[in-house]
Amino acid sequence: MEVTLLKENDYAETMANVVKPALAACLTEGRFDPTQAEREAGLTPLGGTLHYMAYDASKFDAENNQDATASFRGCIVLSHGFTEFAEKYDEMVWYFLLAGYSVCAIDHRGHGASARDTSDRCRVWIDDWRRYVADLAGFAETIGQQYAAGQPLYLYCHSMGGGIGAAVLEQHPALFDRAVLSSPMIAPQTGMPLWLARPLVGLLCGLGLGRRTVFGKKDFDPDAPLDLNDNPGASEARERYFHQLRCGNVDYQTYKPAFQWVRQALKLSRAVLAPNACAGIETPILLFQSGRDVWVLNEAQDRFTERVRGGGSHIEKVRYDDSLHEIFSMPNAILGPYVSRIFDFLEMPTASL
């Protein structure tokens, strides 16, 4: 599918004057109560609700947005990455709406405007990785299905959200019609072999340091200038837009993991890579891999792909050798083929899979 991308030379102006007003006209913000979903998963609810942003394709089309397809294709549930937030995906939501998809994006627990279990605005802590999975599945089964309105329900997720999404696909094989995993955290990059990281982090948590910040990680400083050298090769316009969103909202300033988050990320990885779990997937998957990824392990993505395929399900891996972890933050030369590939996959006849 041909996609008209936003121009990078006037990106901020287009976002402010065209994209954001159009998104606001079809946006409903709400709170999802995960209590029932967590209890069904055998978890004790921690309390609090999760913030979400839902964009209605029919309302978007009614605004007569240029290039809108005016043909409703279903709903995409969006699952963001570690220390991210739903609003970061404004541009991707714009493209999805133009193509005829409603979008429901949740702030995962401990992120954005959702419930938190720590007083540190920058730290992310979670007691059990299964809570993320129960929350996303419950959200998709209710709010997502509501916006799908009888049409297909799809999953688009990035990084941590991709690891959570993979677990949802394993535990709820009939929930989504198709899934896109973008640089998924099948296993996190810890700076050391996972066989060493697991017992070390487990020991630190056992010593009562689970809520402590991982060594070397700092708070987000909204007064510090953006260092574009942190992401060499990314789109400067997109990086500046993400940075401004984070600086302008204290809820968006999550920036560092607690040891317990790392422990649970490693447990999630082990569960997702279990051969019997991979074999249980039925949803067709498109997995994107970033050649210059420093946040997640590509080798784990390769094993996941092999095991899902070995279990008899359709999975296609697309690798962008020159892309950083966030493919959606790259210049148009990479973003264009990425977005087009997503739509080609979602619209491909089932018989062709």
Give the CATH level 1 class.
Alpha Beta
What integer value in Å does the Rg equal?
Answer: 19 Å
Number of domains: 1
CATH superfamily heading: Alpha/Beta hydrolase fold, catalytic domain
- H-E string: HEHEHEHEEHEHEHHEHHEHEH
Number of strands: 10
The biggest beta sheet reads:
8 strands, mixed
- Helical residues, percent: 40-55%
* Second-tier CATH architecture: 3-Layer(aba) Sandwich
Query: What is the rounded distance between the termini?
Result: 17 Å
Present the secondary structure layout.
Elements: H1 11-25, E1 27-32, H2 35-40, E2 50-55, H3 57-62, E3 74-79, H4 90-98, E4 101-106, E5 123-124, H5 129-148, E6 153-158, H6 160-171, E7 178-182, H7 194-209, H8 236-247, E8 256-257, H9 259-272, H10 275-279, E9 285-290, H11 298-310, E10 315-320, H12 332-347
Parallel strand pairs: 3-4, 3-6, 5-8, 6-7, 7-9, 9-10
Antiparallel strand pairs: 1-2, 2-4
